[in-house]
Each structure stands twice: as structure tokens, then as C-alpha cells.
Predict the structure.
Amino acid sequence: MRFVLICRLLFICTLFLSVESWWFVKSGNSRGCPRRGNARPYYFGTTHLGCMLKGRQKGKRSVPLRGTWDDTHRYIYYRGKYFEFSRSGSRSGYSRLDEHCRGKTERYPAGYSYLSLDCIERCVRRYQNEYGGYNVVSNNCHNFANRMSEVLCRRSYQCPSWCN
């Protein structure tokens, strides 16, 4: 009994160490990425995970700095395109991964960016080379959205070197 309790505590501690401080992150524009010049807004959005999993064939979809532990699928919306990450890899498109599921893009911009769509699409294509494959704990759709937010919030027009 004591061994099981210790194992559970270690598991919980491991989860907290691998999760960023999501309880401090609020929706809307962060002070760290304010509107500047002709920068374009970008948004975080979510889709209910239960809907995405419902009626899917086994293996097609799996349970996937906003919270990295949430029962939603997170994406980034920028310049009319959606940027997402799942077990099947990263993707960009003019529609969400599962359009039949209602998605919710946050009302207020998370930040503003000067970067081109071409740059962000290259980052999305090269994401797994830089950060590795999908992992439900350490590299899920929430981690992807937070990392893409870091890329978008750059104060220059220059694309990050790992995206080239």
C-alpha cells in the first residue's frame, strides 16, 4: 500500500515538473507581445476533445503558454489559417482539423506578429524536427501552440533559424 502511494506521488510530481505554469496564464493579449506598428494579431483557440474523439476510428486520433493539461485540443489562428499539432503531426490549413466539432477562437488576440504566413508554415512543417514527435505529456497540442506563440511574438520580421 505504501509503495503504491509513493508511486502515485512520484507520478504526480513528474507531471507538475513537466507542465509549464499554466495557472498563471490568462487569455487575451499578454503584456509581453503588445500591438506594434503593422503587426498582425494571432489567437489561441480550442476544440472540445470529446467531440474530436467521438465516432472516430481507433488509431485515427488520440487524446491529446495556455494550460498544457486540458480536455481540449488547442490551435493557433493567424492570418486566416489554423496551425495544429496531433499524433498525426503538425499541419496548417484554412479549416480546423475536425471542422464538425465546434471550435472556439479566443475573442482577444494573444499577441501580434510581423512574421509572414510562409515563415509560420515552415515552422509548422519543421516542428517535429526541432521538438520531436507527439507526446501526451511533454509535446502535445498545447505545447505546440505555446511554442508557436513564442515564434509569432518575435519583435522582428526574421523567421527563426530552426524554421529555415
Observations:
- Strands lie at 40-48, 72-78, 81-86, 89-93, 103-105, 111-113.
- Residues 20 and 95 are 28 Å apart (CA to CA).
- Helices lie at 2-18, 49-53, 117-131, 141-152.
